[in-house]
Structure formats: C-alpha cells, structure tokens
Amino acid sequence: MTTHRAPKSVARPGRPGRPAERAVTAGLALAVAAGLAWAGGMLYTVVEWWS
Question: Residue 11: which pLDDT band, with cuts at 50, 70 and 90?
Fold first, then answer.
C-alpha cells in the first residue's frame, strides 16, 4: 500500500525564516510576553491586596 504524502516543495526547500514562520514566531512570543505580564499583574494585585 502506498502512502499519500504531499510532495516536497522544490522552491527553496528547508529555508528558515519565511515571512509566515516569522509572523507565527512573533505572535507566539507576544502571547508568552502577554501571559507573563498578566501573571505578574495578578501576583502584584494579590500581594498589594494582602498588605
């Protein structure tokens, strides 16, 4: 039985840094930064609330 795989791209195979990859990476980095900022804000709020 043969496998049905998508053909590999011949135009610059394996070239990192395509615009879509950079956009996804930048989006993930911003999401992580926003999550850390949110968590820090929550910790700050709880600490200030208890003191």
Answer: low
Under DSSP, the state recorded for 12 is: S
- Spatial separation of the C-alpha atoms in residues 5 and 31, rounded to whole Å: 32
Taking the whole predicted model, whether its pTM rises above 0.90 is answered as no
The two structure tokens encoding residue 24: 């996804």
What is the Cα–Cα distance from 51 to 46, expressed in whole angstroms? Answer: 9
Whether 2 has a pLDDT exceeding 70, the answer reads no
Torsion sign over Cα 40, 45, 47, 48: positive
In three-state secondary structure terms, 32 is: helix
